[in-house]
């Protein structure tokens, strides 16, 4: 994952096909020396292979299912046609022994990822995820680029996965104490002193919120889930909720230093937060830097005024259930069917959290801009597909349904909450084609 990233000057090559075979299969995966888990993998590795493409390329993924249960793949953050989105509403489950071909063009540069979209609480926890990196000509110039895919696994002492689906786990989401970066438990990252690196950080955890710190040092946010932001933002911490990504520029570091990449305490109202380590940065001998981060990286036009009037309210809530412990709901219903959305009609949604804990809201297939959180405009403008909604809070988002009709989905990205009902399907329809969409019945919505 190192030097191939370094010198991507100005790719002018014509768009091409990026073809990759992914086999979902059980495989023993070593998370630490001598510690192997019975993982489910793409091509025998956790994470699965990193797919790299340039804007305009066509990505072709031939998925073979060698698991004992059905699966699908969702391309998190990619603005693709509905039919390629990987949900059960748009494709049949890929049964054991079957193949399915995903084919779509990647229109945006950024840090994306792919993951199973069936029985996710088990399939993703066991390792069925990977990164999808899309580049274009306007990238920042750094000395080195790295991908950090964060995850946690809940294992027993003997290395097996702890039993799935306890009452508490279904309520708060599954967190494990084996913290992984790129499939390895608390690795050491060797960095050269004096260098500036771009880290593409992806939170692939089932439920863990990661308030990322690098030894308390300052670093810069340069991108979010929807690619670069306008200007870099200096911070000492960045919050990555499940499903989310942050592109950060780190360094230069001082020779001989050792810093911890930690998740700082973040209270999502499910228990007492503490400092937890993901990795160690070890700074070696000094090297010259050629990095150039322009003052202005991109322009992002605002979709709407910060106080624009919402045309839809999406309420996330929970209630006690005798059957399951907790029901998770959208607009008062588990596995909700929301109203259709019209192509070309600006959407202003108030996403309301009526519950007592945080929920990461994820919209499939489209980027949104956050207009305000509890009435307060965000510190910088960005394209996103995932946003945290604080307890008893309200996040106003704006998004534009472009001409990609079909069935789409939004949900809480805490996998147990999604499975427990905090999700909705809805149609994007072309004007004049409403009846067709309404006439379609939702089969197998649930999952
Ligand atoms: Cu990464 Cu339906 O989600
Ligand atoms: Cu949730």
Q: What would your notes on this structure say?
A:
The chain is mainly β and 447 residues long. The protein folds into three domains: 2-135, Cupredoxins -  blue copper proteins (Immunoglobulin-like), CATH 2.60.40.420; 144-286, Cupredoxins -  blue copper proteins (Immunoglobulin-like, Sandwich); 312-438, Cupredoxins -  blue copper proteins (Immunoglobulin-like), CATH 2.60.40.420. 5% of the residues lie in helices and 45% in strands. The protein is built from four helices and 31 strands. It has helices spanning 120-123, 167-172, 415-419, 434-439; strands spanning 17-32, 35-42, 48-54, 58-65, 73-76, 99-105, 110-116, 129-135, 144-153, 178-181, 184-185, 188-193, 197-203, 210-214, 219-224, 227-235, 238-240, 245-250, 258-264, 276-286, 312-321, 325-330, 336-337, 341-342, 347-353, 359-363, 369-373, 386-389, 394-399, 406-412, 423-429. Strand 10 (178-181) and strand 11 (184-185) form a beta hairpin. Mean pLDDT is 93; it is low at 1-10 and 437-447. The site of copper (II) ion has 5 residues, from loops.
Question: What are the SSEs and their pairings?
Answer:
Layout: E1 17-32, E2 35-42, E3 48-54, E4 58-65, E5 73-76, E6 99-105, E7 110-116, H1 120-123, E8 129-135, E9 144-153, H2 167-172, E10 178-181, E11 184-185, E12 188-193, E13 197-203, E14 210-214, E15 219-224, E16 227-235, E17 238-240, E18 245-250, E19 258-264, E20 276-286, E21 312-321, E22 325-330, E23 336-337, E24 341-342, E25 347-353, E26 359-363, E27 369-373, E28 386-389, E29 394-399, E30 406-412, H3 415-419, E31 423-429, H4 434-439
Parallel strand pairs: 1-4, 3-8, 9-13, 12-20, 21-25, 23-31, 24-31
Antiparallel strand pairs: 1-2, 4-6, 5-7, 7-8, 9-10, 10-11, 13-18, 14-17, 14-19, 15-16, 15-18, 19-20, 21-22, 25-29, 26-28, 26-30, 27-29, 30-31
Residues 359, 412, 414, 417, 422 line the site of copper (II) ion.
């Amino acid at each position: 994952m190192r030097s191939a990233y370094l010198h991507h000057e100005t790719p002018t090559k014509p768009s091409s096909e990026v073809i990759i075979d992914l086999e979902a299969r059980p495989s023993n995966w070593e998370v630490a020396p001598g510690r192997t888990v019975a993982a489910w993998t793409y091509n025998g590795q956790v994470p699965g292979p990193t797919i790299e493409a340039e804007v305009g390329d066509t990505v072709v993924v031939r998925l073979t299912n060698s698991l004992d249960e059905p699966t699908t793949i969702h391309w998190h953050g990619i603005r693709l046609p509905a039919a390629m989105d990987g949900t059960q509403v748009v494709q049949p489950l890929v049964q054991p022994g079957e193949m399915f071909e995903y084919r779509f063009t990647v229109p945006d540069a950024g840090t994306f990822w792919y993951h199973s979209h069936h029985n996710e609480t088990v399939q993703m926890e066991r390792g069925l995820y990977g990164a999808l990196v899309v580049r274009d000509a306007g990238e920042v110039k750094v000395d080195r680029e790295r991908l950090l895919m964060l995850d946690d696994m809940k294992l027993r002492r003997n290395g097996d996965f702890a039993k799935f689906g306890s009452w508490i786990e279904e309520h708060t989401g599954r967190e494990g104490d084996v913290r992984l970066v790129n499939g390895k438990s608390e690795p050491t990252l060797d960095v050269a002193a004096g260098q500036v690196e771009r880290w593409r950080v992806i939170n692939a955890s089932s439920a863990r919120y990661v308030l990322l710190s690098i030894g308390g040092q300052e670093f810069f946010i340069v991108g979010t889930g929807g690619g670069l932001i306008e200007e870099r933002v200096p911070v000492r911490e960045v919050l990555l909720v499940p499903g989310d990504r942050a592109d950060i520029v780190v360094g230069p570091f001082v020779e001989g230093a050792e810093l911890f990449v930690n998740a700082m305490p973040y209270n999502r109202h499910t228990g007492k937060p503490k400092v937890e380590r993901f990795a160690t940065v070890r700074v070696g001998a000094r090297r010259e830097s050629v990095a150039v981060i322009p003052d202005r990286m991109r322009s992002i036009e605002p979709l709407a005024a910060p106080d624009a009037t919402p045309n839809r309210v999406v309420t996330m809530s929970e209630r006690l259930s005798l059957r399951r412990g907790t029901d998770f709901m959208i607009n008062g219903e588990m596995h909700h069917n929301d109203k259709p959305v019209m192509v070309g009609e600006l959407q202003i949604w108030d996403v309301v959290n009526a519950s007592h804990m945080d929920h990461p809201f994820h919209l499939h297939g489209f980027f949104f801009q956050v207009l305000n959180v509890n009435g307060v405009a965000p510190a910088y403008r960005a394209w996103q597909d995932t946003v945290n909604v604080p307890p008893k809070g309200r996040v106003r988002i704006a998004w534009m349904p472009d001409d990609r009709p079909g069935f789409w989905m939004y949900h809480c990205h805490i996998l147990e909450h999604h499975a427990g009902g905090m999700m909705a399907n809805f149609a994007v329809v072309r004007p004049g084609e409403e009846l067709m969409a309404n006439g379609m019945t939702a089969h197998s919505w649930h999952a």
